[in-house]
Amino acid sequence: ACLPLSAQAVDLENGERIARSCALCHGQYGQGTPGPISPRLAGMPQGYLIKQLEHYQSGERKNDRMYILASLSRLSEDDIDDVSAYFASLNLDKVGLPNHVPLWPGDIEEGEELYNDDCKSCHRKNGMGRSRKGVPALALQYSQYLFTQLKMFQWRKRVHDDDPEDGTFDDYTDPQLE
Q1: SS3 for the chain, per residue?
Q2: Mean pLDDT, to the nearest integer, of 50-59?
């Protein structure tokens, strides 16, 4: 009874059932896969996941393979809440999967400087995001996936920080993004 109303309304069993259709790409526990396509979903903020699924449903964000495999057109608002809550509740340490993310070539010192200048204020110094504000963790994502998403922001195929005019990454070169 002390939980917020939104936490009382979710059905984690339904979320787990729905998540099975996500496992082909995102892994059995939402751990994601190294590479540019399938990000880690485990432990991501529920609000962020809801927003992204709604963007895929509306066509604002596109991934035809995901749209078909996850049957996004058939997910109700409650289903989206449930599967988002399920992924947000997953802790990879508790299921025995390593949280190790392989490094990708790039200048770590320059990356740290760029991160501190443009990313740290929202995604926090440790890169773990701000779950209460729906800001995703970057620290546990795969480098190739992050690179691809940064390119999508540059190409205006994705909206960064809910601002279609956000040009944070416009002047970054590929080596800087790496």
Answers
A1: CCCCHHHHHCCHHHHHHHHCCCHHHHCCCCCCCCCCCCCCCCCCCHHHHHHHHHHHHHCCCCCHHHHHHCCHHHCCHHHHHHHHHHHHHCCCCCCCCCCCCCCCCCCHHHHHHHHHHHCHHHHCCCCCCEHHHCECCCCCCCHHHHHHHHHHHHCCCCCCCCCCCCCCCCCCCHHHHC
A2: 91
Instruction: Tell me the percentage of the chain whose pLDDT exceeds 70.
Output: 92
Among the listed residues 33, 10, 50, 46, the one whose alpha carbon sits nearest the alpha carbon of residue 129:
46
Which position has the token pair 């991934």? 63
- Band the pLDDT of 99: cuts 50, 70, 90: low
pLDDT at 177: 94
Residue 113 half-sphere exposure, CB side, CA atoms within 13 Å? Answer: 7
24: number of Cβ within 10 Å: 13
The per-residue pLDDT for 154 is 96
